[in-house]
Amino acid sequence: MNRPLEGLLVLEFCQFLAGPSAGLKLADLGARVIKIERPQTGDACRSLSIKNLFVDEDSLLFHTINRNKESYTADLKNPEDLAKLKKLIAKADVMTHNFRPGVMEKIGLDYAQVQQINPKIIYGMVTGYGNEGPWKNKPGQDLLVQSVSGLTFLSGVDTDGPVPFGLSVSDIMCGNHLAQGIMAALIKRAKTQKSVLVEVSLLESILDVQFEVITTYLNDGGKLPDRSGAKGSAHAYLSAPYGMYQTQDGYIAMAMGNLPNICAIIRCDISDLYVEAGSAFENRDKLILRLAETFKQDLTANWVNLLESNGIWCAEVLNYQTATALSTYKNLEIEQQLELGNGKNIKTTVSPIRLDKRKLFAAKAAPKLGFDTESINREFEIK
Amino acid sequence: MRPLEDYLVIDFSQFLSGPSASLRLADMGARVIKIERLGVGDICRTLYTSNLIMNGESSVFHAINRNKESFEVDLKSEEDCEMVRELLKKADVMIHNFRPGVMERLGFDYPAVSALNPAIVYGEISGYGTAGEWKNKPGQDLLLQSVTGLTSLTGNADSGPVAMGLSIIDMLAGAHLAQGILACLYRKAVKNQGGFVQVSMMESAYDFQFETITTFMNDGGSLPERSKQNNANAYLGAPYGIYQTENGYLALAMGSIPQLGNLLGCEKLEEYVEVSEAFDKRDEIKAILASHLLTQTTEKWLSKLEPADIWCSDVLNWNALMAHDGFKVLNMIQEVQMVDGYRYETTRCPIRIDGELLTSPKGSPKLGQDNEKIIKEFITHTTINA
Fold first, then answer.
1. Which tens digit of pLDDT belongs to each residue from B169-194?
2. Closest residue of B to A155, CA-based?
3. pLDDT by residue (tens digit) across B297-319?
4. Interface predicted TM-score of the whole assembly (ipTM), two decimals
5. B65 in a domain, yes or no?
6. Smallest Cβ distance to A51: which of B186, B196, B215?
7. What's the CA gap between A24 and A8, in Å, rounded?
8. In terms of pTM, does the model score above 0.80?
9. B252 and B358 share one domain
10. Signal sequence: where (chain B) (predicted)?
11. Which of A236, A350, B43, B204 could be bridged to A227 by S-S, CB 3.0 to 4.6 A?
């Protein structure tokens, strides 16, 4: 299969999640991605585990983010290594890094100096909070970025206080934006034959995620989001029934819908709370609680059958065990197996993008630290 | 020069997923024409969030559809379809997010469109793929969060399922579609080859969870367990979380427990000397931290932790954020204007190219506002026989 980024060489100086997740996207789309790693330790993510899960010497987390890549070790403070790297940079199409502002300038690999080595390079930079201002040196860490961005006042109920998203959402969205910026830059370069600088930051990315609600805030006299006090509500800006409700044996999720119609179907009397269309908003909390009383009285499957047969948008709330057992999960081929050698393998996800009717499977496991250094030196005649 | 200058995108999509992808392409320089249904348009125009109506249409529509044009057509009229076909012959990209089967019926599915224009990049978003028993289910964000296990990651152990309070799966699917389209546009630029990009919200939801679902797959299928209180990530130990202080909140991302105990003057924490205890005993550690942090102000705690390079932060709402120089320096807000002069503020594209902010002064389009101009510019006379 001909993958769109075939033939392109990407050097990834990034660590952790944001930058490397962009590298993974580019790799699955066909680019050759070489991680440039510090000798001995490498990407700090190699030793950063969740639930203490390791595969050989590297964390499962590292394996998840860095499959389908190669590893080249170089000490950026060693002049010999730096000279070798510059030879590699001269042959590359893209390089990415997420060092704090000033670090690459000191090493001599900032954009201006890299352009001298390679006038056609796409240079991608990830920062936490941009390159200037009082926050430029703050650690670009996901939870902290969520915390300053206002995002934590959108989930959960109002009595919870701030509720962060339970995933590194700023890192992941920033990685998505970096991948987009790099590919746009490649298109630009195809026309101009000149280098392009691409910059993203975790903070700008998490603000972009909030673009709808921030636009509402900006044009509504600066009114802050008003989360519901009722457990299960799912969106500060949407009215009842939007949310999740406990049933006799689990939970049901209700999307937006015509409230009187839905209540007639499930036989929930809201006549005292719902007097006009605006009531769905004004009495949101009370309505959610009223609906909750009804949903508790039957099984999830019965509610879903009843509501779906009436064209109402709803779903059973699933966990990983029940979700991955769905036939749709299997049909979409969300999993792939990576061969690690010695008969070992791990399972992980496949790229979510389907091209020309095919999934972008890539079974190559993450590289051991420095695994490809020698062969890359030979290939590019670096001595 | 913007990267996608001179590129033409024909966008049939509605709501958020597809239109968020075309917004990105527009900010990168492409010309985006929304194909909208006669008399109604993108349903998002009337999808009121928070009851906020701006210039007659929903605030959400204005946020998603700035920097685009609107071509109002009746796809049941052969004449209008012919005009759309003429546009597609000249387009670089086409996008839609109709349910499976709709475009086949309308005659705008990939085989039909690539027959008109073999070099076109055709992008589509579905909820659950184009085959299988769920293909006709509505691709609605909360439902996708619910069926992919995502709601078991946010909130505390006893919170029940907690949604992420934004249409995050829509935005991810849009981001992935934009990536697939950009990759194919690069291929088109070097090989003049078309491409077919398909994204489903379900696959996008799992890509978002790739770290946690990979952990699940390789850890004997054990489910994520959120901490009892102050949870911020089901898979991380103490102190990871947000804590109430005397006058606000404090986010704590890292730090060894005894060191935190020492810096915060909390002796009880100094007893947790084993590294593994940060995870294994996170509920009791978080409880101690939470009651201790209540005793002083956020500023006081930050002044003890920041000099020691502990990753921590104040927790801001939008008022406090936007008053801060750290936000102002980003120039994240732009003002745009509609054809009737109505102006509104919104965010800009988060990507900078060659040091340039990808802002654009053009507001969202009124339904059909560009019909005349588009017909004049693209449609040959023989098509319009009226």
1. 999 999 999 999 999 999 999 999 99
2. B165
3. 999 999 999 999 999 999 999 99
4. 0.98
5. yes
6. B215
7. 14
8. yes
9. no
10. none
11. A236
